[in-house]
Amino acid sequence: MLNITEYSVELVKDPFGILDGKRYEFILDLDVPDDDELYCDNGVYARVIFSVADSGTRIVKYELRERSTDRFLEIDLEDEELAAFAQFCQEELESGIDV
């Protein structure tokens, strides 16, 4: 299982009012076990676009990247890992962080 060690979040601006609800960009620093296929010596982080709308919340998009080189990692997360990311994002937004 991937552990989130640190994160940052910011509101994605929508100057034209095209998006339904609000979008947030989360940067999640991950602690990946060294026996996991996602493991990189330089570290890994996830960039998650999270939507909050009247219809509900969801992950719109995510990317996995190597920390020091910012290289895109072509690895898909498992459903339970995505669910854990979505739950983390939801809980952090509900906790009242200032964005």
Task: Please outline what is shown here.
This protein has 99 residues and is of the alpha+beta class.
Give an overview of the whole structure.
This protein has 99 residues and is an alpha+beta fold. It is 16% helix and 43% strand. It is built from 1 helix and 5 strands, in the order βββββα. It is globular and about 40 Å long.
Properties at a glance:
5-stranded antiparallel sheet; 99 residues; alpha+beta; single chain; globular
Question: What count of helical segments does DSSP give?
Answer: 1
Strand content: 35-45%
Work out the helicity level: 10-25%
Question: Which structural class best describes the helix and strand composition?
Answer: alpha+beta
Show unreliable segments: none
Mean pLDDT: 92
Distance between the termini: 28 Å
Rg over alpha carbons:
14 Å
Inertia-based shape:
globular
Major β-sheet annotation: 5 strands, antiparallel
- DSSP, total strands: 5
Order of the strands making up the biggest sheet: 1-2-3-4-5
Question: What is the H/E order?
Answer: EEEEEH
Please outline the helices and strands.
Layout: E1 3-12, E2 22-31, E3 44-53, E4 56-66, E5 72-73, H1 79-94
